[in-house]
Write a structure and sequence with these properties.
heterodimer, A: 112 residues, mainly beta, 7-stranded mixed sheet, 4-stranded antiparallel sheet, B: 111 residues
Chain lengths: 112, 111
């Protein structure tokens, strides 16, 4: 099992460009999450999907959109990238509400 | 006030000592609490989960929960240099699927 996979691993964008971060899990988990991590600020929740077909905003949703494509895949889209979105992005999944989250390897995004 | 508060550290302890990491949270409805370890440049990984008041032990790690005081802690006994990492406290907010993390505490264990 690959666990949680994310693509790409690294990306450099110019201000105003758009891109989609991809996440997939092969553990048959119901819930999936997108976080960003900035120095000194821990993990901040952007969006989450409690189950297939549902998505909800987290702490910092502005400037982002998500799609829960199916049970396996949960994508994060930046429509018009800004330098403030320079960060490391982690995708995570878990089976149920009291279960641990499994994290992907992260995407390091730089917006110039 | 941040919803999940941790002392950012760094916390420095000698090898073999007990490291004590603390976390407070502001939501009285939260029922599930987690400690994750994150090495530099890596993804977080689960250390402990705790759901009931009291202590939960797993090897060298003990998690403590006090819901009345809205406080959760992690003790690491016989600290090793390999324990040097950032420790993240996480709370299932409002008893639901939304999970809020603290900013993390950096731990250094000196050989």
């Amino acid at each position: 099992n690959a666990g949680v996979t994310q693509t790409p691993k690294f990306q450099v964008l110019k201000t105003g460009q758009s891109m989609t971060l991809q996440c997939a899990q092969d553990m048959n988990h119901n819930s999936m999450y997108w976080y960003r991590q900035d120095p000194g600020m821990g993990l901040r929740l952007i969006y989450y999907s409690a189950s297939e077909g549902t998505t909800d905003k987290g702490e910092v949703p502005n400037g982002y959109n998500v799609s829960r494509l199916n049970k396996r895949e949960f994508s994060l889209r930046l429509e018009s990238a800004a330098p403030s979105q320079t960060s490391v992005y982690f995708c995570a999944s878990r089976a149920g509400i009291d279960n641990e989250q499994f994290f992907g390897p992260g995407t390091r995004l730089t917006v110039l | 006030q941040k919803e999940v508060e941790q002392n950012s550290g760094p916390l420095s302890v000698p090898e073999g000592a007990i490291a004590s990491l603390n976390c407070t949270y502001s939501d009285r409805v939260s029922q599930s609490f987690f400690w994750y370890r994150q090495y530099s440049g890596k993804s977080p990984e689960l250390i402990m989960s705790i759901y009931s008041n009291g202590d939960k032990e797993d090897g060298r790690f003990t998690a403590q929960l006090n819901k009345a005081s809205q406080y959760v802690s992690l003790l690491i006994r016989d600290s090793q240099p390999s324990d040097s990492a950032t420790y993240l406290c996480a709370v299932n907010w409002g008893g639901g699927f939304k999970t809020i993390f603290g900013a993390g505490t950096r731990l250094f264990v000196k050989a």
